[in-house]
Write a structure and sequence with these properties.
Layout: E1 10-16, H1 31-49, H2 53-60, E2 67-74, E3 83-93, E4 97-105, E5 111-120, E6 122-124, E7 131-133, H3 138-145
Antiparallel strand pairs: 1-3, 2-5, 3-4, 4-5, 6-7
């Protein structure tokens, strides 16, 4: 199935770099960015759908939106105490999967990290009980088409 038109909804989340995010050199240990991006994806969906994750998973009858692919480009390091912002948006919806792009911006607007995820809308199969992909409801894609 071809990608649906690119959504326009962008969510911006402020983040303070904490001591536990950093390595002994005082800069963010790279796996911590992926945790920040995961939280940013949840915040993006919360904002677009107007309800917290616990409610939208129940509302749509899904288990969640697990990640099946991820990568990042690191441009400028962040350090303990930095105030950054993570801008997140869905760049493509398909039948049951979607792509998310994150941009971590330093306080001065410098691009620090770009993150990319592919996630799958999942439900439990009624017959086997196994986790399976499920079609993304039109209500979800419409929520992301509005600014």
């Amino acid at each position: 199935m071809p990608d649906m038109p690119a959504p326009v909804f962008v969510h911006r989340r402020p983040v303070t770099i904490e001591w536990g995010d950093c390595d002994p050199a005082g800069i963010v240990f790279y796996p911590r960015y992926f945790a920040m991006f995961d939280a940013s994806t949840a915040a993006l969906f919360d904002a677009a759908l107007g309800m917290p994750k616990i409610r939208w998973t129940k509302h749509f009858g899904i288990l969640g939106i697990p990640m099946v692919d991820t990568r990042a480009k690191f441009h400028v390091p962040s350090a303990y105490g930095d105030q950054v912002a993570i801008e997140s948006r869905v760049t493509a919806f398909r039948r049951s999967s979607f792509d998310v792009e994150h941009r971590l911006l330093k306080a001065d607007g410098t691009l620090g990290v770009e993150g990319y995820e592919t996630r799958v809308w999942t439900a439990r199969d009624g017959e086997t009980g196994r986790i399976r992909s499920a079609p993304i409801p039109p209500e979800v894609t419409k929520a992301f088409a509005q600014e």
